[in-house]
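Q: what sequence does this backbone want?
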């Protein structure tokens, strides 16, 4: 029987307590999964890196407790040892390992200290987890060969120099796992890009081939060319949606389940990414449960949405996707959620989405949000509709304020902005409740507070500069930007691009 598992993305700011992990474990077993993968990065309390333990980090004790309570469920650690080490790199202690300054997410494989750090993380992981499989990560190392030392190594190597530094980095870590009688695993994407690196893999190593669009029919046989076992990885399409695209997720899981059977692959792993920016994990648990039977019988199992209220899910998935534009199905991270919450400037939503959200699309979106909110029976199903409605209402307020400001009606502009305070307060309540309920992101709470603070700042600026006290009226986009500087009429912080980093 191929391995059936899913991964919990602990790394995106999740605060997984004992109680939460018990819930995930129990629901995984109920659904019929063999294993629960914990995608950790820096969100695990590795004994060797006390400097990286952020508030709410998952602990080895919690993992041991869950193993004791649920002995029939495998708990597989997913660490990451080259790309996606950003949670280490952006700390004072970890910054020495970075490949570039204030850019990207990859460490430098030529840095001796980083190589030793990886060895210690592997050792900590081998001690904290008892599963045979230890996933070492290795995906999205798009900064290979960037620093001067690595660039020199890449250019002086015969053949594919990037394949060589990648393989040289991972080979000892793979063997560290093999030497203890355990099995290492790696993601497949960099091997597909640099196939020469496959040659360092011992037969025991498994490759996790993530293909969230299409199939693994071409990629899996390439990855298996030296006899390594391959696990197909599907995903729930959340990172690229306002909430989740259930139709695209069902299609992805079903296609890969068919490939697993026809290619006789070692297993199927459902990944779930980025349950942040107001996308609570408990709102996707019904889909995680619905995926397990599809993995087993792709041609006969019910749709992934089976565990949801029909009316709610058809609005928040199909309904939202059919709004089109930036709501449509895409490979891109959700532009709405990112612009609203990630960059400490919600006015980015106005700049990029005003036309979309003020027109008929916005009206439809608000209608969908209000209907879904009315039919949401559990708190986790209220978050996405509240977010959708907030997006539209934010743009309505921001556009009204912009027009009044342009017309010199300062106090009317302020009056249009004031209700934004309550809008971000209500989003902060949702973020706080999500954190309490399922260990959701603490950063989300801060993101909502920061957005509200920024609105406050913009209100002050409108009052102060809307009456032409500067002798000119700053453009609305400039006035609402965090970098706005009074009297810098030419906006040299925009014009002078080279110094911005
Ligand atoms: Zn380097």
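A:
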């Amino acid at each position: 029987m191929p391995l059936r598992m899913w991964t919990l993305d602990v790394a995106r700011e999740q605060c997984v307590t004992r109680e939460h992990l018990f819930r995930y474990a129990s629901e995984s077993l109920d659904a019929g999964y063999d294993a629960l993968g914990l995608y950790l990065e820096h969100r695990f309390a590795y004994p060797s890196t006390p400097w990286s333990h952020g508030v709410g980090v998952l602990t080895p004790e919690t993992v041991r407790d869950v193993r004791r309570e649920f002995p029939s469920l495998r708990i597989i650690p997913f660490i990451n040892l080259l790309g996606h080490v950003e949670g280490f790199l952006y700390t004072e202690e970890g910054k020495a390992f970075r490949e570039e300054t204030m850019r990207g997410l990859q460490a430098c494989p030529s840095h001796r200290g980083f190589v030793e750090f990886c060895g210690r993380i592997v050792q900590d992981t081998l001690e904290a987890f008892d599963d045979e499989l230890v996933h070492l990560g290795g995906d999205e190392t798009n900064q290979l060969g960037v620093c001067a030392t690595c660039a020199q190594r890449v250019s002086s190597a015969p053949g594919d120099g990037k394949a060589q530094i990648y393989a040289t980095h991972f080979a000892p870590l793979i063997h560290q796992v093999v030497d203890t009688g355990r099995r290492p695993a790696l993601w497949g994407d960099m091997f597909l890009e640099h196939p020469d690196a496959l040659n360092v893999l011992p037969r025991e190593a498994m490759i996790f081939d993530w293909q969230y669009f299409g199939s693994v029919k071409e990629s899996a046989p390439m990855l298996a060319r030296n006899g390594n076992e391959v696990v197909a990885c599907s995903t729930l399409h959340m990172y690229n949606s306002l909430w989740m695209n259930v139709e695209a997720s069902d299609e992805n899981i079903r296609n890969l389940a068919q490939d697993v059977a026809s290619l006789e692959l070692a297993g199927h792993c459902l990944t779930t990414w980025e349950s942040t920016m107001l996308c609570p994990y408990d709102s996707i648990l019904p889909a995680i449960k619905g995926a397990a039977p599809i993995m087993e019988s792709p041609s006969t199992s019910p749709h992934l949405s089976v565990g949801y209220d029909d009316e709610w899910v058809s609005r928040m998935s199909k309904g939202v996707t059919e709004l089109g534009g930036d709501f449509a199905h895409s490979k891109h991270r959700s532009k709405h959620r990112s612009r609203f919450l990630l960059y400490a400037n919600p006015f980015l939503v106005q700049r990029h989405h005003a036309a979309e959200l003020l027109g008929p699309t916005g009206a439809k979106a608000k209608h969908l949000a209000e209907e879904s909110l009315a039919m949401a029976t559990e708190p986790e199903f209220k978050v996405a509709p509240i977010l959708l409605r907030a997006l539209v209402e934010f743009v309505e307020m921001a556009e009204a304020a912009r027009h009044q400001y342009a017309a010199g009606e300062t106090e009317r502009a302020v009056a249009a902005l004031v209700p934004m305070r309550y809008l971000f307060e209500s989003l902060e309540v949702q973020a706080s409740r999500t954190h309490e309920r399922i260990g959701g992101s603490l950063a989300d709470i801060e993101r909502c507070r920061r957005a509200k603070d920024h609105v406050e700042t913009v209100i002050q600026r409108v009052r102060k500069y809307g009456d032409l006290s500067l002798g000119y009226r700053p453009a609305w986009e400039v006035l609402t930007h965090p970098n706005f500087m009074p009297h810098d009429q030419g906006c040299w912080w925009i014009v002078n691009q080279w110094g911005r980093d």
